[in-house]
Amino acid sequence: MGKRGLIATAVTVVCAVTVLAAPGTAFAAPTPSPSSSPSASPTPVSNKELEDVRKKLEKLYHDAAVATDEYNAAEEAAEKQSAEIVSLAKKIVKGQEKLAELKKRAGSAAAAQYRSGGLPDEAKLMLSDDPRDFLDSAGRVIQGQRATKGLLGEMTRTQQDLEQYASDASAQWQKLEAGRKAKAAAQKKIEKQIKAAEQLESQLEKEEKERLAQLEEDAAHKAQTAWLDSGVLDDIKSKASAQGRKAVEYATAQLGKPYEWGAEGPKTYDCSGLTSQAWASAGSGIPRTSQEQWKQLERIDIEDMRPGDLIIYNADASHVAMYIGDGAIIHAPRPGRTVTIAGAGSMRILGVVRPDA
């Protein structure tokens, strides 16, 4: 099979993987050329075919980014649920100790009342030398009875608390198990998309990979130029806050480190792992995923953004980068790449959020 046939076949196979992972999507593979004889030289892949490959890779890595957000969200939820289970377990232990102590006190009170019982109150009054002693004693008995009722009430409340803690712990365990399954499913999606992308790229010769890289660079440059030509930077004059400067310094120090899905440093990062850790270093905890950063952080107009703000990309908020000024960003792009500086307008901007609003 000739080179074009190999590329076309690879794109078609990868297309099938994508359709399975995301129903409703489709990709038209280039028409394969007639098979050549084994001795024939490979037919060069055209720029059009490489452009098809570029778009297909972009789609695969985008889907991997979406799955990475799902994985990170499941991992973050699992950490919270585990911490909640530990907290509930401690409450259960304390509650059991408290209940045991209350039972002991209630038993002692019941025994004391039994020992002081026997004769009716009228008989005690008649046999008493001093009615005031009797009345004082009767008062203490009444107080003891009230105290016993209070103990019983507290025992009941403690028992109810223990039952609620146990119920809450059971619910958290169920959520934790569901989260583990979601995390495992997301991991499979990620690995599937990345493997398909790697298989597609593996069909290319060195020269074709270089041309593909140039096509990717040209597409990013074209998008950045159009964004700058819109005059968007004319109104962006805000300076970074003190925290924003710290976040930018942290992100800048990570330049050149590899992308790894699910990673939060210090050696590797995914896109939201980089931004969340950068802002954590600046003293502001922000959500772990790009989608939650978009949902929870304050949104601002592009014209008002300043260094340290986060730019959210794609309609599904599947990518995030940190704005560093002069129309540039720092981000962890995708598998096979490193933390790098790029044009802020080189990808589809959804909006801007500010962690230290």
Could you describe the 3D structure shown?
- The structure is a single chain.
- The protein has a six-stranded antiparallel sheet.
- The chain has 357 residues and is of the alpha+beta class.
- Helix 3 packs across helix 4.
- The chain starts with a helix and ends with a strand.
- The chain has helices at 3-21, 47-116, 121-127, 131-202, 206-229, 242-253, 271-281, 290-296; strands at residues 298-300, 310-313, 319-325, 328-331, 340-343, 349-354.
- It is 62% helix and 8% strand.
- 27% of the residues are buried.
- The protein is built from eight helices and six strands.
What is the string of SSEs from the N terminus onward? HHHHHHHHEEEEEE
Distance between the amino and carboxyl termini: 58 Å
Largest beta-sheet characterization? 6 strands, antiparallel
Percentage of β-strand residues: 5-15%
Number of helices: 8
Helicity, in percent?
A: 55-70%
* Biggest sheet: strand arrangement: 1-6-2-3-4-5
Find the count of extended strands (DSSP E, 2+ residues).
6
Q: What does the radius of gyration come to?
A: 34 Å
Tell me the overall shape. Answer: elongated
List unreliable stretches of 5+ residues: 1-41, 121-127
Structural class: alpha+beta
**Average pLDDT metric:** 80
